[in-house]
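Q: Here's a chain of 159 amino acids. Please give me its 3D structure as tokens.
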Amino acid sequence: MLTLKCAPSSGKPNLSDVVLVNLAYVSDVDVISDRAETPPPLASLNFNKLVNRARAEKDDKLSQAYAISAGVSVEGQQLFQTIHKTIKDCKWQEKNIIVMDDVVISPPYQVDNCKGKEGSALSHVRKIVEKHFRDLESQKPVQHSQQAQQTQKDSALSS
């Protein structure tokens, strides 16, 4: 195992990125420069935290794969991801999004499709759905102008 301590991708000066490389999959290593002093010992890794993070990532990917295989629309998948960023307790049940076991969002995944017992959970989910679609609408003019600029560039290049 090769351990590389790298500059932080987060930009925070007091942190480092640690990359572990399985040397069984490496065919050749070139040493560009060698350090004269012994590097400080690596901080211990919280193995349980890493396992939990890997499990959560795997569950997220399985959830995405399930949505695709169930024929969920792209809009539904995007809404699920938006909700999941705020509320981790959400899952798919066929084509419905279930949030905190209290709120069900059915296709076509609009605010009116949020059903559940009236209360703070339903209200909170509706606000997330409203904001999601507001954000999508605000991005559309930018996308259209970028497409128009690309079309102008393409036509200028072809003439």
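Q: Can you summarize the key feature?
A: The mean pLDDT is 86.
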